[in-house]
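In response to reviewer comment 3 from the previous cycle, which asked for concrete evidence that the modeling workflow produces usable outputs, we include below a single protein chain processed end to end. The sequence was submitted unchanged, and the resulting structure tokens are shown without manual editing.
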Amino acid sequence: MDLRHLRYFLAVAEEGHFGRAAKRLNIVQPALSMQIKALEAELGGALFIRTSRRVVLTEAGLLLQTEAKRIVEQTENTRLTVERAIRGETGRVRVGFAGNAIFSGKLIADLRLFHNCFPDAELMIHEVGPQEQVEAILSGQLDIGYTPVHSKIVASDLAVRRIGDWEILVALTEDHPLAQHECVTMEMLAGQPLIIYDAHDAHEHLFMMLTQKLREECNIAYRSGSTLSILAMAATGLGLALIPAPLQQVHIPGLVYRHLNEPNLTANLVLISREQESSASVKAYLELVSRSV
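The workflow returned the following structure tokens.
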């Protein structure tokens, strides 16, 4: 007895007629009759009472009808569940992001797009430092990472997709003398107390450029890995913060943002994942967001 036998049996039971059941199953009536007889022989008794006009279920046939419906429905549910998992419609995607990524707009747009397309897939979102993201992805603790470029993302088993580049802005108090300029030059920063990120080695490029341009007049007053801490220090008047442009969306009373006239200084964002990915839901996420770039 297999699923084919059960489907044939249910068709005859529901139609009450071998001819109509055979037409529904798209097979010839003699073949259907043979299959039902084989099923009855295997079970050791009649499942139908046959008359010249119709067939009626026996007591055993009624019992089999109940069980067969349950088995066939469960089998179909199992098939659909597995097919959805293969397509990535279910499952789990664990996303890590560096603090600044949330202001870029790309992270939220990608998460929203995936959730709308695959509402039954589970999204787990964590703020994770740039370098820690690489270790978490390669060890299987995270699936996707949104991070600025840094040295650890050169790992051979890591896939890297560049998804954004932005200019560097200067955040300063509205009453600071430099606030009257719409665009600040590097020379204007000479001697000013500066606040920069200390999150990962990519910001060392900014530090090197500052020291190269300003030399002994480069005054790094504070470093911090926290976006809000950097903005809070700048708003307090402790120094001028050099930040990625998307952060100008953050409104802090008394804090203003000015362009920095230094095109070689930029902030970036990349999406990182495992080069060899086995999860269908993670693959679906990557494919979806890559089409939206």
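The chain has a mean pLDDT of 89. We consider this sufficient to address the reviewer's concern, and the full set will be provided in the supplementary archive.
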